[in-house]
Design brief:
Blueprint lengths: L8 H22 L3 H20 L2 H14 L16 E5 L11 E5 H10 L4
Antiparallel strand pairs: 1-2
Helix pairs in contact: 1-2
């Protein structure tokens, strides 16, 4: 199982400060407009998610390349992958969604791996 870096207390405080600053900026930009506050919050969330995961089209292209590289088989059980409902699995979370750090799994294999990691 891959272990992920955790923040120490000083780093957690820095993260809390960043979050507080970002919330204040959103509040200032939105003023009294709750719809704008929601939209700004959603946009910031989405863009930060893209920083970590990449954009959906890039992940879809990567997944298609990996299925082809795996000859259409699950990277775990080697059975043919279904047409849909497959999982692009990260080998290392910090490595990102790039060639060499992902594999495509069938849903049952992904579920078994996630259970083994204590996530499902």
């Amino acid at each position: 199982m891959t272990t992920h870096r955790t923040l120490n207390e000083a780093e957690l405080e820095a993260a809390r400060t960043l979050l507080s600053d970002i919330r204040a900026l959103i509040d200032t930009a939105a003023g009294q407009d709750e719809q704008l506050r929601f939209a700004l919050n959603r946009k910031v969330y989405k863009e930060l998610s893209y920083d970590e995961r990449g954009k959906p089209n890039a992940r879809a292209s990567l997944k298609a390349r990996m299925v082809k590289a795996q000859n259409g088989d699950c990277a775990q059980c080697a059975k043919p992958l279904p047409e849909s409902d497959t999982v692009l699995d990260l080998l290392s979370a910090t490595g990102g969604y790039v060639d060499g750090n992902v594999r495509v799994l069938c849903r049952p294999c992904d579920l078994a791996i996630q259970r083994g990691r204590g996530f499902a």
